[in-house]
Design goal:
heterodimer; A: mainly alpha; two-stranded antiparallel sheet; B: mainly alpha; MetI-like fold; 12 helices; disordered N terminus
Chain lengths: ~280, ~325
C-alpha cells in the first residue's frame, strides 16, 4: 500500500515532464530539418534557422570553459588534497555552496558591475563568458573534489613511500586516476552554461546581430569584444519580444536547446556509468 | 629530491651550471604549483566576496542616499519610470516572490519528499538508477525552457480549465517553479534518507511497524535535518529563479488575491528592467539594491541548509 502511494507521487512528477517534452517535440517536428541548424535567422527572425545563436552559444560556452576549468579543477585539487580540517577549509566549502546558490540574476548584476563596467570589457562575448564562468565554477569544483576523493588513499600512500612529493603524487597518480571523473564535471559545466539566459542578458548577448552566411566567417563571426546571439536568449526573444513568429519556429528552437543540453548531460552520465563499471578498486 | 641533479658517473661531485639551473627551476616549480593550487582553492571565497562587493558598489549611492529603506520595503508603489515622482516600493514584488515560492513549495515538497522516499526505500537497483538519471536530466533543463513551457503550454491549459482571462499567472509560475525545484529536493532528500542507518529500519520492523510507520515514525525524524536542507535548497532555487518566472507569471505589479492573478517577482523585475535603465541612474541602482537583497536571502538559505546537513554528520558520529 505505502509503496504505491509513493510510486504515485514519483510518477506525478515524472509523467507531466515527459508529457511536456513530448508535446514540445510534436510541435517542433515540422520545423526540424538540417537547414534549421545551418541557416541564419532572417526576416526579423520570423524565418530561417538557428546558426547565429548556435555559434554564439558555442563560443560563450567555450570561453567560459577555458576560464572556469583550470581554476575549478585546481580548486577541487586544493579542497581534496591540500586543505586541512580547519576553519579556512570550512569557509572555502561554504563559499562554494553559496556560489552555487546565488540566483542567476545576481550573477548577472555582478557581471555588469565587475566585468562590463569595472573591468571595462563593455557588453561583450568576453564579459558574458566570464560571468558564466563564475556562475558555473562550483559545478567543476564539486565534481573534481568528488572524483579525487574516489581515488583510494593507499594509492597516495604508496607514492609517498617511494619518496614522491605531494605535487608529484597528484600529477602522476591522483589526476590520471580521476581524469574521467573530472571530465564529467566539465561536461556538466558545459550543459549548465549553454542553457543559462539571465547572466548573459545584460553582459553580452543581443537579440539580433547579422553574421555572414558563408565562408570561414560563418564559423568565427564574433570577436571577443563583440556582442553575440545565444540560443537561450534567442528562445526568449522569439517567445516574448518578436511578433509574428510561427509556433513551430518557437517550439523548434526550444527543442534544439533541450536536445543540446540533454545530449551533453547524457554524455556525462554515460561516461560516469562506464567509469563505475570499469573501476578496478 | 636533490639527487635529481647529480649526474651519475660525472667526474666531480658538484653539478655543472646547466644542471644547477634545472635544479633551481625544479625547486621553484613545486612551491609555485602548490601556491597556484591554494590560490585557486581560496578563489571561491574571493568570488563570493566579489559578487557582494560589486553588487553593493553599484547599489551603495542610493542605499545610503535618496532611497528610504522603510518606503522600499513597505510601499507597494513600484513606479520607477515616472517623470514626476518615481517611486520604489518593492512590497508587491516581495509578496509576488513569496506567494509564488510558497505555492511552488506546497506542490514540490510533498511530492518531492514522496519521490525521495520511493527512490530511497521502495525501489530496486535498476529502477532506482533510472529514476535518478531522470531526476538528474530534469535538473538539467534550462530555466528559459521552463519559462517557455509556462508561457506556451501551461498558460493555454490554465485558460481552458479555469476560464481565466490570462494563463500566465501565480498558478502557472507556481507549477513551473515546483517542477524546477523538485530535482534538488529529491536528490538531497534521498541522500538524507540513505544516511539513516539500516539498523533503525530493522529495529522498527522487528517491533512490528508497518511501512508507513517506518517512514513517518522512524525515517522522517531520523533524517529531519537533511530533509530540512532539501526543502531549504528547493526554496533557494525557487526564490532565485529568474527567466522562468519572468515568462510564466504575467508581470503585473500587484498583491495577488487569487491563484489566477498575474504577479511579478523581485528577480523578474531586475531581469525585465535592467536592460532599459540608464547606467548610474537611481532606477538602475535600485535594481542593484534588489540584487543585494536577493544575495542576502540566498546566503542565509544556503548557510542554514549547510548547517542542517552538517547536523546530520555530527549526529552520526556522535
Amino acid at each position: 500500500m505505502a509503496q504505491y502511494v509513493f510510486l504515485a507521487m514519483t510518477l506525478s512528477l515524472v509523467i507531466p515532464v515527459f508529457a511536456i517534452l513530448g508535446y514540445i517535440l510534436v510541435h517542433a517536428w515540422p520545423a526540424l530539418s538540417p537547414r534549421f541548424i545551418w541557416e541564419n535567422p532572417r526576416d526579423f527572425m520570423t524565418a530561417g534557422g538557428l546558426w547565429a545563436p548556435l555559434v554564439g552559444t558555442f563560443f560563450l560556452v567555450l570561453i567560459s570553459l577555458l576560464v572556469a576549468a583550470p581554476v575549478g579543477i585546481l580548486a577541487g585539487v586544493y579542497l581534496n588534497e591540500y586543505a586541512g580540517d580547519n576553519w579556512l577549509t570550512r569557509i572555502v566549502n561554504l563559499a562554494v555552496v553559496n556560489l552555487a546558490g546565488v540566483p542567476s540574476i545576481v550573477h548577472a548584476l555582478f557581471g555588469v558591475g565587475a566585468f562590463v563596467l569595472f573591468a571595462g570589457m563593455g557588453r561583450s562575448l568576453l564579459a558574458a563568458s566570464c560571468t558564466l564562468a563564475v556562475m558555473t565554477l562550483p559545478v567543476i569544483i564539486t565534481s573534481t573534489r568528488e572524483a579525487l576523493a574516489a581515488v583510494p588513499m593507499s594509492f597516495r600512500e604508496a607514492c609517498w613511500n617511494l619518496g614522491a612529493s605531494r605535487w608529484q603524487t597528484i600529477r602522476t597518480i591522483v589526476l590520471p586516476n580521476s581524469i574521467s571523473g573530472i571530465l564529467t564535471g566539465v561536461i556538466l559545466q558545459v550543459s549548465r552554461a549553454a542553457g543559462e539566459t539571465a547572466p548573459i542578458l545584460f553582459t553580452g548577448a543581443v537579440f539580433f546581430t547579422p553574421i555572414p552566411d558563408h565562408g570561414w566567417q560563418a564559423f568565427f563571426p564574433y570577436g571577443l569584444g563583440d556582442r553575440c546571439m545565444a540560443l537561450s536568449m534567442h528562445l526568449f526573444t522569439l517567445a516574448t519580444q518578436v511578433r509574428g513568429v510561427s509556433d513551430e519556429l518557437q517550439y523548434g528552437t526550444a527543442f534544439v536547446l533541450i536536445a543540446l543540453v540533454l545530449l551533453v548531460n547524457s554524455l556525462s552520465i554515460g561516461l560516469r556509468t562506464y567509469l563505475r563499471s570499469r573501476k578496478r578498486w | 629530491m636533490n639527487d635529481l641533479t647529480s649526474i651519475p658517473g660525472s667526474a666531480t661531485d658538484r653539478p655543472r651550471p646547466p644542471a644547477r639551473l634545472i635544479a633551481a627551476a625544479l625547486a621553484l616549480t613545486e612551491p609555485l604549483v602548490e601556491w597556484t593550487i591554494r590560490l585557486c582553492g581560496w578563489s571561491a571565497i574571493l568570488f563570493v566576496a566579489a559578487i557582494f562587493f560589486f553588487v553593493a558598489r553599484e547599489a551603495a549611492p542610493v542605499l545610503f542616499g535618496e532611497l528610504s529603506l522603510w518606503e522600499f520595503f513597505t510601499s507597494q508603489n513600484w513606479i520607477p519610470s515616472s517623470e514626476v515622482r518615481p517611486q520604489y516600493g518593492v512590497l508587491a514584488l516581495l509578496i509576488g516572490t513569496l506567494s509564488v515560492t510558497g505555492l511552488a513549495m506546497l506542490l514540490a515538497v510533498p511530492l518531492g519528499l514522496g519521490a525521495a522516499v520511493y527512490i530511497s526505500e521502495f525501489c530496486s537497483g535498476k529502477v532506482r538508477e533510472i529514476l535518478k538519471v531522470v531526476i538528474e536530466l530534469l535538473a538539467a533543463i534550462p530555466s528559459i525552457v521552463w519559462g517557455f513551457v509556462g508561457y506556451m503550454v501551461i498558460g493555454p491549459v490554465i485558460i481552458r480549465v479555469t476560464a481565466a482571462d490570462v494563463g500566465i499567472n501565480l498558478l502557472n509560475g507556481g507549477i513551473i517553479l515546483a517542477l524546477m525545484s523538485v530535482p534538488v529536493i529529491v536528490s538531497v532528500g534521498e541522500d538524507a534518507l540513505k544516511a539513516v542507518p539500516d539498523s533503525y529500519r530493522e529495529a522498527a520492523l522487528a517491533l512490528g511497524a508497518s511501512r508507513w510507520e517506518i517512514v513517518y515514525r522512524v525515517l522522517f525524524p531520523a533524517a529531519k535535518n537533511g530533509l530540512l536542507a532539501a526543502v531549504l535548497l528547493g526554496v533557494g532555487r525557487a526564490v532565485g529563479e529568474t527567466m522562468a518566472v519572468l515568462m510564466a507569471t504575467g508581470h503585473a505589479v500587484q498583491i495577488p488575491t487569487s491563484l489566477l492573478d498575474p504577479i511579478r517577482t523581485l528577480t523578474a523585475t531586475v531581469a525585465a528592467e535592467l536592460g532599459e535603465v540608464v547606467a548610474g541612474g537611481t532606477h538602475y541602482r535600485v535594481l542593484f539594491v534588489i540584487g543585494l537583497a536577493l544575495f542576502a536571502v540566498s546566503f542565509v538559505v544556503n548557510l542554514t541548509a549547510d548547517l542542517a546537513v552538517k547536523g546530520i554528520r555530527s549526529d552520526k558520529t556522535g
